[in-house]
Specification:
It comes from Kribbella karoonensis. With 150 residues, this protein is α+β, with helices and mostly antiparallel strands. 35% of the residues lie in helices and 37% in strands.
Amino acid sequence: MITALDVTDRPLAERLLAVQHAAYAVEAELIGFDGIPPLQEGLHELMASVEHWLGVYDGTLLVGAVAYEFPDERTVEISRLIVDPAYARRGYGRALLDRLDELEPRPVSEVSTGSANLPAVNLYKSRGYAETGRIEVAPGIYVTQFRRAS
């Protein structure tokens, strides 16, 4: 089940934060950098998020989420895609992206991820995203920017 999330709901936000920290800990290990902002985020910061959120559940347990924003009327920008590592490789990330496409069918979609996070890079490429650039966020640590336009 995929549904909109209300991050001001404290018990939900606590679970979401646990998933986020676990997911970004895996990315930090993959890219060799633990300065990823969502990995450092606390509960109050998450609850104050102005992003839109969709969550995916395995039964009654939140196991993943996607956060997104609208920088302009044509674009959806994916700011976070997280899946609990215990539930990885089961299609939850792809399902979240598919549902986002259904709910917000904008002509342009943008996302970025750690360049060494090959599972995420491959997921975005498999969904038609093309690399538009790389940014060095710390010495030797790169983030790849992707864009998909219809």
